[in-house]
Amino acid sequence: MNILEALNWRYATKRMTGEKLDEALVNEIIEAARLAPTSAGLQPFHIVKISNPEIKKQIQPIAFGQPQIIESSHLLVFTSWDKITDEQIDSVYNYTNNERGVSNTATADTVAGLKQLFLTFTEEEQYHHTAKQAHIGMGGRNCGGGSVRGGCNSNGRFQ
């Protein structure tokens, strides 16, 4: 199934079967979210994978009592950074450069520009920016979930 077919099949699942997803599939979906094309490649969010039924029961009341919270195999919670610090920018670019075999001097101007840019944002503006980037990550998760196994079937389970 190509990505457009997967996206056409995607929909909001209102109920889950309780069937446990394979951990490798869940990790692939998380990796798709991590690779989503966020602003400046910062990926300013964390993804918390929750499969513990007791923790999901504690979350359900603050998630408007949605039954899929406790019926799901895994619950992925996206948390965005409160603010963007120089250390976070350095960490992301050091990691990315290392993975790609690129020297830090090759991206030094970009890193300096990002640090200067985010100095002009208030903390509230930084938070709103990172929250929007978390939504992009969730979109990447949707694409990954759909293309990994063909999306959800009519029972709301990944195929």
Automatic annotation (TrEMBL):
Molecular function in Gene Ontology: oxidoreductase activity
Pfam families: Nitroreductase
Transmembrane feature ranges: none
Domain (Nitroreductase) ranges: 8-138
Enzyme nomenclature, EC number: 1.-.-.-
Cofactor(s) listed in the protein's UniProt record: FMN
Keywords, ordered alphabetically: Flavoprotein, FMN, Oxidoreductase
Family: Belongs to the nitroreductase family.
Name assigned to this protein: NAD(P)H nitroreductase yfkO
Native source organism of the sequence: Chryseobacterium carnipullorum
